Each structure stands twice: as structure tokens, then as C-alpha cells.
Amino acid sequence: GWCPLSPAGAQTHDTLVEPPWRPAVLWDQVTLTCQGSGTAGATPWYKDGQRWWPDGPDHFTVTESGTYQCDRHSTGLSPSVTVLNDRLVLQVTAHALLEGDTVTLRCRG
Q1: 32 assigned to some structural domain
Q2: Model pLDDT for residues 51-101, shown as the tens digit of each residue
Q3: Less Cβ around it within 10 Å: N or C end of the chain?
């Protein structure tokens, strides 16, 4: 089976979402930042599974709803982040949760 823990010394990366709520919503002026190791310089971004911004910056403010990923070359594609344009959303904090954790939810519209 697949194990979510990285072996010691492995290079991993993620897409930081600000503000830190999931699902992210377009009207929150969401900023995505590609974190992790890899080649410095231009950051390739993917939107809805397609190469979208091949020479992008490491962070930007989202202007269109969709599912985003970044590529750090040596570590591959980041986990996807979906940004919605829904009028009403139930959100949870964007950090990892474990069974038994206290969860803060917010309903926004």
C-alpha cells in the first residue's frame, strides 16, 4: 500500500494556500505558493490537469477557479489545490487533521 510518510532525506513539496482554508474560494483572494526544493527560477503551474503557466513565479494570486498544481522538477507535481467560485461554502482549516482532533468549520457566503 501507499504510505504518506516520506523516507528520511526525501525531497517533498506542497502548495501553500493563503488564507489557510479548504476549499479555497476565489472571492478570498487566494494566493498559492509552490514550496519545496527543486530548480530555482521559473515555476511551471498546471491548471485542471493541463500545463497552464510554464514560466510562472513561485507564488501568485488566483484569478480563475480551477484545480492547481506546481512542478518543482526534481520532486514532481505538488498535490492539487482546488479553488472554487461557489456562493456558499463550508470550510475547514487547511492543515492536516487526525481522528479526534478538534475542528473549526466556517460557513461562508
Answers
A1: yes
A2: 999 999 999 999 999 999 999 776 788 999 999 999 999 999 877 778 988
A3: N
* Grid coordinates belonging to 32: 498559492
Neighbour count for residue 109 (Cβ, 10 Å): 8
Angstrom distance (rounded) from CA 53 to CA 47: 8
- Is beta strand 43-47 parallel, antiparallel or unpaired with respect to 105-108? unpaired
Q: Which residues contact 39 (CB under 8 A, 6 or more apart)?
A: 72, 73, 74
Residues near 31 by beta carbon (within 8 Å), at least 6 away in sequence: 17, 18, 59, 60, 61, 62
- Kindly state whether residue 40 falls inside one of the protein's structural domains: yes
**Which range of residues forms the domain containing residue 50?**
14-108
CATH number reported for the structural domain that contains residue 65 in this entry: 2.60.40.10
> Would you say residue 90 lies in a domain?
yes
How far is the C-alpha of 86 from the C-alpha of 26, rounded, in Å? 8
